[in-house]
Design brief:
The chain has helices at residues 21-27, 33-41, 133-140, 160-164, 205-212, 243-255; strands at residues 19-20, 45-47, 50-51, 58-59, 65-67, 70-71, 80-85, 114-115, 123-130, 148-155, 170-172, 175-177, 180-188, 191-198, 216-225, 228-229, 238-240, 271-272, 284-285, 294-296. By secondary structure, the protein is of the alpha+beta class. Strand 2 (45-47) and strand 3 form a beta hairpin. Residues 1-15 and 258-292 have low confidence and may be disordered.
Length: 297
């Protein structure tokens, strides 16, 4: 018989609005809600020494809560980092096959962070990392509509008209993909470079849509996520978004259910176009807003 939500312990009382423990732990940066549910199932999370058996447990604070026997600290202000993910890394904490993950390359002095969305093994570019599970969820929700930008190099022929047809969305093998703003950037021999902007971020969406158009993707780079831009952050390095810029951005998430695609925009970072093959960079693309995040070694 499944355990009912235990009564709130005296140590958990604090006059705050009761919330599910998975949400509180996610906000504290312990893990994603789904991973926390698995941790509860494995009896790794306890209140005042008693293992929790249901993610439906409701608390007003994390006082008395432990993970693997260690007390959980009250959530600190959310932090957001920009990581220039190289190709060849999995966006996961550990891999049963022993393949390298992003956590193998992150600086050792970085706080505990969770990735915002995922980048495939062979996809490179901007990966957001945060200490706050609730911020992660906000940025990932399709209903919030945070825009992602990509550059793709692909083998084959495609017309601008074909790319523009994606603005209406497309259904591929029973999966519906929403509106994609795609533009032919340039041709290089038998290859084309394509810029794409979308708001859903479904699994392997860019690759599947381009394959649907008869193209074979050989390189895929995420260049922006919302107002946060890859800029010239070196491969494998991490930069942190300044706290007041993050606070301002979160206000835009609360102000409207969908991120604007034109007109007034949330705070942005200055950016330059990512490096093209051969090391040549595009012309700088400056946007008003905060200075670029400072790299961390």
């Amino acid at each position: 018989m499944s355990q009912k939500s235990p009564p709130e312990s005296p140590s958990a009382k604090g006059g705050r609005e009761p919330q599910r423990i998975a949400k509180l732990l996610a906000r504290a940066g312990i893990a994603s809600r789904r991973e926390i549910e698995r941790m509860i199932e494995a009896r790794r999370i306890a209140i005042d020494g008693k293992p929790i058996e249901t993610p439906a447990t409701v608390l007003t604070s994390l006082h008395g809560v432990t993970v693997d026997g260690k007390p959980v600290q009250a959530p600190a202000p959310a932090r957001l980092f920009l990581f220039h993910k190289p190709a060849g890394l999995l966006t996961t904490e550990r891999d049963p096959k022993g393949r390298p993950t992003i956590y193998d390359k992150l600086p050792p002095d970085l706080p505990r962070v969770v990735p915002v969305g995922r980048l495939d093994l062979n996809t490179e570019g901007l990966l957001l990392l945060t200490t706050d599970g609730e911020l992660k969820r906000q940025l990932e929700l399709p209903s919030v509509g945070v825009e992602r930008s990509y550059r793709a190099r692909a083998f084959g022929n495609v017309t601008q008209a074909q790319l523009e047809s994606l603005i209406e969305g497309v259904e591929i093998e029973g999966v519906r993909y929403g509106s994609i703003d795609a533009n032919l950037e340039r041709r290089t021999g038998a290859n084309v470079w394509i810029e794409m902007r979308l708001k859903e971020g479904k699994n392997r969406e860019v690759r599947r849509v381009l394959e649907y158009l008869g193209l074979q993707v050989s390189r895929l780079i995420r260049t922006a996520y919302g107002p946060f831009i890859l800029d010239d952050l070196p491969v494998g390095e991490v930069g942190e978004v300044r706290q007041h810029d993050l606070v301002a951005f979160r206000k835009t998430l609360k102000a409207a259910p969908h991120m604007p695609s034109g007109g007034a925009k949330p705070p942005t970072l200055q950016s330059t176009a990512p490096a093209a093959p051969g090391g040549r960079r595009g012309r700088p693309r400056h946007r008003s807003g905060p200075a670029p995040a400072k790299p961390r070694s």
